[in-house]
Amino acid sequence: MEEKIEKTGTEKALEWLALNAKLQQKKNALRKALKEKGILKKGATNTYDKYSYFSEAQYKELFTELFSEHNLELKFTELDYTTFEGSEKQANGRMPKLKFTLFDIETGFSEDTVITGEGIDKGDKAGYKAYTGALKYFLANTFMVATGDDPEKESPDNRMNNVGERKASARQVAILKEKYTGDNLTKLLEANGINKVEDMPMKTASNIISKIMGG
After folding, report:
1. 161-181 in b/e burial notation, b at 16+ Cβ within 10 A?
2. Separation between Cα atoms, residue 103 and residue 109, nearest integer Å
3. How far apart (Å, rounded) are the C-alpha atoms in residues 110 and 4?
4. Axis-axis angle for helices 170-179, 202-212 (nearest 10)
5. Looking at 51-55, 76-80, 91-95, 106-110, which range is the least confident one?
């Protein structure tokens, strides 16, 4: 019967570095494959606001092919899910906190990325928008997806969905006021150039809350 030899801390660290290096090489190879495709053609159109966009279906089709070619797999887990009040026209707001795990199928090694998605809708699609936005954000920023999108050219109605231009929700304000008091609150306001927590942009509030909640 063979005696099982426990690996030393140094050996474990070297093994981790080797596995991580292999995963990073695959990510870089995938980025190169994306770059060779050039600017990706937007296949969907918002007829109401009259703009084109790279749809969720296109993202999934594209990355199903690329992940298969590079022996990668992506899974996600919901860590938290909150609601907030949206705008007058789209009152329902949803904010899921998701952990995306990218696996190297050949080695089983993986890396995690936590993203908070946000979406608003007049009906029951806010959660779907938030999930879709988080997925697109992860894929676009991790692999440098080039779709030619220019946020500055979006219509006013479409920018209403950009949480960075709206103020923090009532729930976000409550969390920040609970976590920041006294001098810490003063420093927070000064650092963000605002006079009160209610003036905090929603995207900024989301990032701060994600960090203090361990994201």
Report:
1. bebeebbbbebbbebbeeebe
2. 6
3. 25
4. 40
5. 51-55
Contact 45, 51 (CB under 8 A): yes
> Closest by alpha carbon to 119, among 68, 169, 178?
169
CA distances from 18 to 12, 30, 34, 88, 151 (A): 10, 19, 25, 52, 39
pTM over 0.90: no
Q: What is the DSSP letter of 49?
A: T
How many other β-carbons are positioned within 10 Å of the β-carbon of residue 82? Answer: 16
DSSP string of 77-141, one letter each residue: EEEEEEEEE--SSS-EEEEEEEEEEEEETTT--EEEEEEE--EEESSS-HHHHHHHHHHHHHHHH
- The predicted model gives 67-80 an average pLDDT of 96
Match 């990325």 to its residue by tokens.
113
The confidence score (pLDDT) of residue 3 equals 66
